[in-house]
């Protein structure tokens, strides 16, 4: 099984808690109310129609007084023995002397019925006990020797009669199904509030349904338990053979209203225990039926004996039909619907249906209900709701409901609304709604006479549940297998309109003629069933027989065709009224009608042959969608929906996956952005660092340039002095012309960057105490200068290497992090170009600095060698030449003199030997060239290197 269909509310053991259907006001409708005005029928206030009826009812005595119809031109079907299509019956002869009994319920032996203690509607079944049956069967006589249990002896008339009429009086409690909102009382009675008939109504295995598991194929067995005499054994065999056991006929006598102690009543003998009705008057005789209910029997007993078993069979898969037949006002509606305190066949069947469902956990059920009426030979849907009003204020034309026939469904009305119901309360509400819409009117004989035949159809679909619990249910769902087919059976509960004499009112007369005509057709069909039954043995014959039967003469017989022709289990409840509380004429009329009803019942019992079989379980597949059981269609729909759900789930999952992907992508993008931001920040930091480094470098270069320029300017202006300048490098010439050795380092101090390890330099213009040297001849000063220059050089070297390192770092990080990351995005951008250019500049700067460094190293080397040579020369001079020790003044003079005489500076001084002088001159020249050349280069480079930086800024 692939699906689990909605189950009727299982915990219905508890009383229904919801509000019960709003019940209609009695007499709220009349036949002169058009279908369009049906809506008003639900009103709780008396309607004009009810007022009309009130008048008509008040015009009548408390109980309708039948008129004398001796010379009436009535069109009532008078199915007397003489004019019966079945042929005349001999006077005084019963139509049926032996009966087919107990086809439906088998009475529990312990349950008996006593006249003084009418059974409670909730008590166990009170069908006649087997003793009674035995007694009845053993009598076998036309006359009834014993009057035990007869109406005369046992009926407390006043109370019974009072109950009868009051039920339909506007002041009396309304009918259970069409009363006026007696929901509380309904609940209080317990009939509907305890939807657990197994306990309350003894439908359990211990009760009257001890054989509930049997089917109608078991009927022979059931019957054999209820009969013992040979006569009935013979009858039983015939019953079993021809299927008459599937037809149950019961007669119910309505209690009298008023005193009712008329002579007519004395002519009747009602023996419920023997299921016998005896009439001693003209055309009298004994009439045996399956059940005879006397005036004390309540609806529960009627249901238990006449319908309960049939209802159970329907639940097991048989079609079943229960209908009430009888003269107007005899209690058909009372028996079918009942009252709040005395629920009838319909509500009791509903309770039993749900009890059965509760007791059958291995099957699942689906119930749908429809409710129609045949009024003036037209079918109306009682569940269709109010008829819409057209533009002209007239009721809109409704599609006519027609009867159709197919092999699967038999005869059915279409289009007809079907409602799926899931609880007894819901089903009762639906039926109450239909009752509200049904046409009723006050007549001479019944203040609330049904003017139509009403048909409630409950379709029961059921199928086996999946055995093995949830696991196998899942398994079968997966394989889309259905464990069993769907069984569809129908329970038809029919309240016929009563046959009646011609009414004064024209409308009533029209209605009456239609009612009577259809009832006459019904009688005719049933009578002909009897005449044809011997001729038709086979199915083929049956079909040809059906053709000759006038089913189509009326809508009622057409609708009942499947039941009457044997496809259904049938239970007929005939209602009669034997007394007369009116005039003698009325009593006569009653007697005639009662006898007609009794004859109809006997013919039905004798003639209707039912071969009802359990319906086949259809697997649903193959059949067209329309004819498929709803349970099947639901299963397929559920499968389809489940498939859709799975697809939706899959789509949702993939959507969620892609959503997650997108989220991840977004996350990645965010991370990328953060990374880029960090890179950018780092880049900016590096740029700042580089700029700082560049500034420092620039200043350092300026400083160095200043130093170099001062040396150069000295060397360039006076070549001879340049040699001195080598000695006094870094010294400044005082205004007075005296040499005042000043540390060259001091001039650059202001520009010195705070380079780690760089010695702090003295302020510009400060003097060094030992600037003249310890000898005062400049030798020491030169050495000091050399030292100072060396220290300076070391500083520069360190600084340059620091700068180099930082530049290298900057370049690396720029290349790796910034340029690499951004190059693909910002390829060709001006910033990138600028960066590359900056790096190139830095490289050039480094190269320049390196070159300067080299120069300086060379200078130092030259100075060092010059210093050494001078020392040597000095040593030579001091060996023998006086005046070798000169004042600084003299030296300066000679120097200046040598400077002045370009090309022979040393000669002019004449202090150094020739070779040494030449060497020194070479060195000096070389230094001059180097300095001038390098400084020019450095200046050019500086300017070029500074330019972009300035531009950058
Ligand atoms: N067994 C009964 N016990 C008490 N009252 C009864 C019984 N049978 C019928 N009555 C009362 O008799 C009146 C007529 O009954 P009901 O309307 O059921 O007759 P009917 O056969 O349906 O008539 P119609 O064919 O005109 O519709 C109602 O007031 C009903 O309460």
Automatic annotation (TrEMBL):
Location(s) in or outside the cell: Cytoplasm, Cytoskeleton
Organism the protein comes from: Zopfia rhizophila CBS 207.26
Database matches in Pfam families: Kinesin
Record-level Gene Ontology MF annotations: ATP binding; microtubule binding; microtubule motor activity
Source taxonomy: Eukaryota, Fungi, Dikarya, Ascomycota, Pezizomycotina
Composition-biased stretches (Basic and acidic residues): 222-244, 868-877, 915-928
Keyword line: ATP-binding, Cell cycle, Cell division, Coiled coil, Cytoplasm, Cytoskeleton, Microtubule, Mitosis, Motor protein, Nucleotide-binding
Annotated binding of ATP, by residue: 326-333
Name of the molecule in the record: Kinesin-like protein
């Amino acid at each position: 099984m692939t699906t689990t269909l909605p189950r009727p509310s299982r915990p219905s053991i508890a009383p229904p808690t919801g509000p019960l259907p709003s019940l209609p006001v009695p007499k709220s409708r009349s036949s002169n109310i058009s279908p369009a005005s049906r809506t008003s029928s639900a009103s709780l206030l008396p309607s004009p129609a009810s007022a009309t009826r009130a008048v008509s009812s008040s015009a009548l005595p408390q109980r309708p007084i039948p008129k004398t119809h001796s010379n009436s031109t009535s069109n009532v079907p008078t199915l007397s023995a003489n004019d019966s299509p079945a042929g005349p019956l001999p006077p005084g002869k019963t139509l049926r002397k032996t009966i087919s009994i107990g086809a439906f319920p088998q009475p529990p032996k312990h349950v008996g019925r006593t006249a003084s203690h009418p059974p409670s509607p909730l008590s166990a079944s009170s069908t006649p006990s087997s003793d009674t049956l035995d007694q009845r069967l053993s009598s076998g006589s036309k006359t009834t020797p014993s009057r035990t249990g007869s109406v005369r002896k046992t009926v407390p008339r006043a109370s019974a009669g009072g109950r009868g009429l009051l039920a339909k009086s506007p002041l009396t409690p309304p009918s259970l199904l069409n009363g006026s909102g007696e929901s509380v009382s309904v609940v209080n009675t317990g009939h509907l509030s305890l939807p657990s008939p197994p306990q309350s109504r003894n439908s359990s295995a211990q009760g009257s349904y001890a054989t509930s598991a049997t089917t109608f194929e078991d009927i022979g067995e059931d019957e054999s338990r209820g009969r013992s005499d040979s006569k009935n054994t013979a009858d039983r065999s015939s019953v079993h053979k021809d299927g008459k056991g599937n037809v149950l006929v019961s007669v119910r006598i309505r209690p009298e209203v008023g005193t009712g102690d008329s002579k007519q009543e004395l002519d009747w003998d009602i023996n419920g225990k023997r299921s016998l009705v005896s009439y001693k008057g003209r055309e009298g005789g004994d009439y045996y039926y399956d059940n005879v209910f006397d005036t004390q029997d309540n609806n529960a007993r009627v249901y238990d004996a006449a319908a309960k078993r049939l209802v159970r069979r329907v639940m097991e898969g048989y079609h079943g039909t229960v209908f009430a037949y009888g003269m107007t006002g005899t209690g058909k509606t009372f028996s079918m619907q009942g009252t709040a305190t005395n629920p009838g066949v319909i509500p009791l069947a509903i309770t039993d249906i749900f009890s059965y469902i509760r007791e059958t956990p291995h099957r699942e059920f689906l119930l749908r209900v429809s409710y129609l009426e045949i009024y003036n030979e037209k079918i109306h849907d009682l569940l269709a709701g109010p008829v819409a009003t057209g533009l002209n204020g007239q009721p809109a034309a409704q599609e006519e409901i027609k009867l159709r026939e197919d092999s699967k469904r038999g005869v059915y009305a279409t289009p007809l609304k079907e409602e799926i119901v899931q609880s007894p309360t819901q089903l009762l509400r639906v039926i109450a709604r239909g009752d509200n819409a049904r046409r009723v009117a006050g007549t001479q004989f019944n203040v609330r006479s049904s003017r139509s035949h009403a048909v409630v159809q409950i379709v029961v679909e059921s199928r086996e549940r999946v055995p093995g619990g949830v696991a196998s249910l899942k398994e079968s769902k997966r394989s889309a297998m259905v464990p069993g087919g769907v069984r569809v059976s129908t329970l038809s509960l029919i309240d016929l309109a009563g046959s009646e004499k011609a009414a004064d009112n024209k409308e009533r007369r029209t209605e009456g003629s239609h009612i009577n005509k259809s009832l006459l057709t019904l009688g005719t069909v049933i009578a002909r069933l009897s005449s044809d039954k011997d001729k038709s043995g086979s199915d083929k014959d049956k079909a040809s027989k059906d053709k000759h039967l006038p089913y189509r003469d009326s809508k009622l017989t057409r609708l009942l065709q499947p039941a009457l022709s044997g496809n259904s289990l049938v239970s007929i409840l005939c209602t009669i009224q034997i007394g007369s509380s009116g005039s003698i004429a009325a009593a006569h009329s009653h007697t005639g009608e009662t006898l007609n009803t009794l004859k109809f019942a006997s013919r039905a019992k004798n003639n209707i042959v039912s071969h009802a079989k359990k319906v086949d379980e259809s697997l649903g597949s193959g059949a067209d969608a329309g004819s498929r059981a709803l349970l099947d269609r639901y299963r397929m729909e559920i499968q389809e929906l489940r498939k859709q759900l799975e697809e939706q789930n899959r789509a949702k999952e993939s959507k969620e996956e892609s959503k997650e992907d997108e989220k991840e992508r977004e996350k990645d993008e965010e991370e990328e952005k953060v990374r880029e931001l960090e890179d950018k920040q780092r880049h900016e930091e590096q740029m700042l660092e580089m700029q700082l480094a560049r500034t420092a470098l620039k200043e350092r270069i300026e400083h160095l340039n200043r130093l170099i320029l001062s040396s150069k300017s000295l060397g360039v202006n006076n070549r001879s002095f340049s040699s001195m300048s080598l000695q006094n490098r870094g010294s400044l010439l005082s205004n007075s012309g005296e040499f005042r050795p000043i540390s060259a380092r001091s001039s650059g101090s202001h520009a010195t960057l705070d380079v780690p390890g760089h010695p702090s330099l003295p302020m510009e213009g400060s003097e060094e105490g030992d600037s003249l040297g310890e000898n005062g001849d400049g030798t020491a000063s030169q050495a000091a200068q050399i030292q100072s220059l060396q220290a300076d050089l070391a500083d520069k070297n360190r600084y340059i290497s620091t700068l180099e390192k930082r530049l290298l770092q900057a370049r690396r990080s720029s290349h790796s992090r910034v340029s690499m990351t951004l190059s693909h995005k910002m390829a060709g951008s001006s910033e990138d170009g600028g960066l590359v250019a900056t790096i190139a500049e830095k490289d050039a700067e480094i190269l320049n600095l390196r070159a300067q460094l080299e120069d300086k190293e060379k200078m130092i080397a030259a100075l060092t060698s010059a210093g050494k040579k001078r020392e040597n020369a000095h040593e030579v001079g001091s060996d023998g030449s006086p005046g070798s020790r000169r004042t600084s003044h003299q030296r300066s003079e000679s120097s200046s003199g040598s400077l002045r005489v370009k090309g022979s500076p040393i000669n002019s001084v004449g202090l150094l030997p020739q070779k040494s002088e030449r060497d020194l001159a070479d060195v000096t020249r070389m230094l001059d060239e180097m300095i001038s050349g390098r400084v020019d280069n450095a200046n050019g480079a500086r300017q070029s290197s500074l330019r972009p930086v300035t531009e950058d800024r």
